[in-house]
């Protein structure tokens, strides 16, 4: 495998050449040089540009074994002859003004699925604030809800204490995003959600909820063609409650003489 192929496959780097690799202070730093013939305006993407200075950047990348790894390069600034804008060129493996590469971000997000922000930061040898920023930025993708794309939902209520009591949440099962929060826990807490669904002309195929009769009626009234699935947790919980009651009733029916044996 060539060096160029290795940099692309392992670190997502393209449009750069590897100048040298530095091994010092217990770190691995890949020093890159940008291909001059690939310079493009970041606004109109024209190749008719003039170089207007550059800045040095050293970004955290995915570790190699237990060694912290960095990607270092000079970020080129250009003036476009087509649109007259002066901007730094786009670099495919980094996000604007971040101190890490996209590969590092994706690696950290994978670890966050199984661990806490602090543990991930300690494992990667970076500050808590960097991992927190990565997590917070990723969550922003859930801010804009496209209701017409929703196919499968889950409905449940959460108790928030004596002051606020209950709220009802609707979850997009496919993405894991909360798409709606309503006050209360009755059928009327979902009124605004049904309005949004009808306006967007979304086709809800399946709904998961607890065994609430209010939710069941609201679902059948507003999306009658959807498959309604009862949350298995509530089914098992109800079964266990009935089984416990049955055991207690049977125990109370037997004679006092054999209660100990029973």
How does this structure look, described?
By secondary structure, the chain is an alpha/beta fold. It folds into three domains: 1-94, no CATH class; 98-143; 147-236, Ribonuclease H-like superfamily/Ribonuclease H (Nucleotidyltransferase, domain 5), CATH 3.30.420. It has seven helices and ten strands. The strands form two sheets. Strands 1, 2, 3, 4 and 5 form a five-stranded mixed sheet that branches. The protein has a five-stranded mixed sheet with strand order 8-7-6-9-10. Strand 9 (206-209), helix 6 and strand 10 (227-230) form a beta-alpha-beta unit. It is elongated and about 90 Å long.
Features:
alpha/beta; 262 residues; 5-stranded mixed sheet; single chain; Nucleotidyltransferase, domain 5; 30% strand; 31% helix; 3 domains
Question: What's the short story on this structure?
Answer:
By secondary structure, the protein is an alpha/beta fold. The chain has three domains: 1-94, no CATH class; 98-143; 147-236, Nucleotidyltransferase, domain 5 (2-Layer Sandwich), CATH 3.30.420. It has helices at residues 3-11, 102-112, 117-124, 128-139, 191-200, 213-222, 232-253; strands at residues 16-24, 27-34, 49-64, 67-80, 86-88, 152-159, 166-172, 178-183, 206-209, 227-230.
Give the SSE map:
Layout: H1 3-11, E1 16-24, E2 27-34, E3 49-64, E4 67-80, E5 86-88, H2 102-112, H3 117-124, H4 128-139, E6 152-159, E7 166-172, E8 178-183, H5 191-200, E9 206-209, H6 213-222, E10 227-230, H7 232-253
Parallel strand pairs: 2-4, 6-9, 9-10
Antiparallel strand pairs: 1-2, 3-4, 4-5, 6-7, 7-8
